[in-house]
Amino acid sequence: MKSSASPHSKAPFKFRIPTAENLVPIRLDIEIDGQRFKDAFTWNPSDPDSEVVVFAKRTVKDLKLPPAFITQIAQSIQSQLTEFRSFEGQDMYTGEKIIPIKLDLRVNNTLIKDQFLWDLNNYESDPEEFSRTLCKDLGIEDPEVGPAIAFAIREQLYEIAVQNVASARESRMSKKGRRGFEHVPVSKTGGASVDLVKLFGHRSSVVRKRKDWDIYEPIVDLLSNEEVDALEAKEERTAR
Amino acid sequence: METSQRETSYRRVPDEPELDLYTIPSHSSWFSWDEIHETEKLALKEFFDGSSISRTPRIYKEYRDFIINKYREEPSSRLTFTEIRKSLVGDVNLLHKVFIFLETWGLINFGATSDDNDFTEVEDGESSIIKIEEGVPNGIRVGATPNSVKPISAPPAVEDGAIVNGSGFKLPPLTSYSDVFSDLLKQKILACGNCGQHCGSRYHQCAKDGYLICKNCFNDGNYGEQRLSEDFELKTNEFVEDSSNPGAVWTEAETLLLLESVLKHGDDWELVAQNVQTKTKLDCILKLVELPFGDSLLCSEAQRNEVSGSTNNLTSEKEITDAPTNNQEIAGSEDQCTKDINEDKDEENQGPPKRQCTAYVQDTSSSLMKQVALISSMVGQHIMAAAATASVTALCDENLHPKEIFDDQDFFVPNGLCSAASTTTNHEIERILNNDDSVAKERPPQSGDVMAEDKDDIPLILRVRAAIATALGAAAARSKLLADQEEREMEYLLAIMIETQMKKMQRKIKHFEDLELIMETECPVIEELEDKLLMERVSVLQSAFDLGISRWKDYPSVRS
């Protein structure tokens, strides 16, 4: 996988999740007869599709869900994989692209807010490793938090990748041959990519200003059970 | 790169003036603030292939320097990736790679506690490269104050305090310094509640509320509000009395009284103080400790307590105490002499002097006078006498006053010590060499009767000085002896060395002689061999001539 991430090539990257492992974030939210099943995990798109059904059966059996869920789960995964594959083979974007990733999620009793920069050209990036380090550094004990953070990062990367497929197509149409080292203007690339010259130019230091430290710092809150219940009720209301 | 120089130098400023010492593992010795090493270039290629504006050597150096500096703000605690990534602009994955690289090489988190829970989640905005420590650093644990051991390790102080306070209170275990000493400190600055002046050694305390007034105020009837004279009880503050206080000045009579009381009552200071009357317990103790022979007195006292009832011991100890205090006959020098004589007498009574000497040597706490006695018994008696005389002479030269005293008191030696030092010495030597029994016999009655009359005639200080001078003289003599012995030892060793060298030389000579002998025996054999060879040659030549070979060819060889 790493070979494809050769930083020398100025050619546009083919579509994929811009991380070391090309794993697709899959989110399930299925409700049958009042029973709701929500889950989020990653899937390797190069795995044979037969695995999807096996996985669905296994999940339903483990979680003691009604058999009706099997087809629903399999269908949901399959459709998401198909959507992903529809982008494959297309040019994604060109040049440097570093985007801010914002996290704001709640996992069980843990509330996390965070912001950091992510280089879409760094195909050695590893959201799972990053979230592991984060949980370790912050002493988060809930084992579900780490995977949730990694998943959130992947979802955002996926979204940006999809946006860039469109914008790359667009920019290819408008200014042919003008690509490479020069960064693409923010407005054109879509997404909130940062101004690289401003951040990494010769005149600026890569050390952030003091006042920005709080913005780029993870904030972790441990909620009480009552607070969690209140939040869940609120989410329920807004969903309806 | 130019800007990077500026950046790093700016950031290193806090480090340089202090020149803090940081430990990095030896395998990371390649690290240098000013350069990027090959190791770094190999491990983090992406910064050095010029592929991206966000990955340049300059940026790498900034990342690196910042992370290392950040760690070194607090080397004892572990720096986490999450902590540094909020301060650095850039791809978190890249930052993580740099962080892991630095950590792997021990440039950060080397020697830091690997306590995973020991993270600092939120740093205040002020924390930066220059960090002001607040509170106790992580590495330091606050434990019990070491002072708590004090009363245990120094029981005498506590004991004294308890005795002096007169209340048999006991300190609880693990008492702190302030627990033990705060009272004393307070008492030292006791001030009168009325006039505000220091109370001195005696004051009156109100039993109700501990209100203090000084003696003057009490006598004047200034009791303060709502207090009656009955409420106050007289207290003596022993701690106030020190050398500046008149109570610390001792007259000779008081000293004598003290000594007598100590002899009588031992270390029961209550009784001693009662006997002395004019002094407090603490004063008595201090005075006795100050006295040069105080220790010996106490020691002998202890002995007496151990072997109670031994009158023989008692008398001898009395002599010891009498010697320095009551010696009136020849002052300083004779002081020492009488000591000698005392010891001689003891030796006569108790056995060989050597054993006594060793016994004294072992007693490290023996007093000055004991030391003098010991040293004087080590050197010859005539040397001792000479040293004593010399010291007294020197003292007389120093001060005219003692001269008179010595002259006046010196009825034992008819001529003045200074005027006829030589005769004095002779006299003394004679007397001591004879080990005059009469002197020894004379002493006890003198110490009992005559001395009592003239006991105050020679100031104690002077006697002590004379004794000190004598001791120094004796020590010098002793050291001279030691030096002589050392010299002899050296000479002896040198002789042994020379002898050994001589032996070596002789062996060599013998060896060469043997060689010569062998050569001599070989020489005729070789000569014989030469003759034989010559003969052979001649015969060979002869046979050649006979065969008719030309002559000239062989001529030189024959000649040789």
UniProtKB/TrEMBL annotation, chain A:
The family database entries (Pfam families) matched by this protein are listed as:
SNF5
The lineage, from the top, is: Eukaryota, Viridiplantae, Streptophyta, Embryophyta, Tracheophyta
Main localization is nucleus
- Keywords assigned by UniProt, alphabetized: Nucleus, Transcription, Transcription regulation
Location within or outside the cell: Nucleus
Q: Which domain of life is it from?
A: Eukaryota
Family annotation (InterPro entries) = SNF5
What's the protein called, per UniProt?
Chromatin structure-remodeling complex protein BSH
* PANTHER family in alphabetical order: SNF5
Q: Which family does it belong to?
A: Belongs to the SNF5 family.
Automatic annotation (TrEMBL), chain B:
Myb-like domain residues are 250-284
| Keyword Transcription regulation tagged | yes
Give the start-end ranges of region Disordered: 308-336
Q: Name one Pfam family in it.
A: SWIRM
Keywords of this entry: DNA-binding, Nucleus, Transcription, Transcription regulation
What Gene3D superfamilies does its record include?
A: Homeodomain-like (1.10.10.60), Winged helix-like DNA-binding domain superfamily/Winged helix DNA-binding domain (1.10.10.10)
Instruction: Write down the SMART domains for this protein, in alphabetical order.
Output: SANT (SM00717)
Q: Which residues form the SWIRM domain?
A: 22-119
The SANT domain covers: 249-296
Q: Which domain of life is it from?
A: Eukaryota
Would you tell me the protein name for this molecule?
Answer: SWI/SNF complex subunit SWI3A
